[in-house]
Specification:
- It is built from 6 helices and no strands.
- By secondary structure, it is mainly alpha-helical.
- α1 packs across α6 and α2 packs across α3.
């Protein structure tokens, strides 16, 4: 999970959500969100599931995006575009209700 923080941060930014609001929604400290987004901490599986639920994107999609980012050495712009596409794909499906 070398680049997972970048993916998670982009999902939050695309949703126009603050770190504080996401932390509240996930039931964790804002510092934890910052540590994960900056890749200082790796999210445990249950926390990754909470990130996925908060963003209404399946956990496997987040992991797929990270794998693609690493494998293809995406630029920042490519990463933003792929994350935004994935978010748009799932945003209205309400997967986690």
């Amino acid at each position: 999970m070398k680049q997972i923080g970048k993916i998670l941060k982009l999902l939050r930014v695309i949703r126009e959500q603050s770190v504080k609001d996401l932390a509240e929604e996930m039931g964790c400290a804002p510092t934890y969100i910052c540590d994960v987004e900056s890749n200082r901490k790796k999210p445990a599986h249950d926390m990754l599931e909470r990130f996925a639920k908060a963003n209404n994107v399946p956990c496997w999609e987040i992991l797929r995006l990270e794998e693609e980012l690493i494998k293809n050495d995406w630029s920042y712009v490519q990463t933003v575009m792929e994350v935004a596409k994935t978010y748009q794909k799932y945003k209205s499906l309400f997967l986690f209700e």
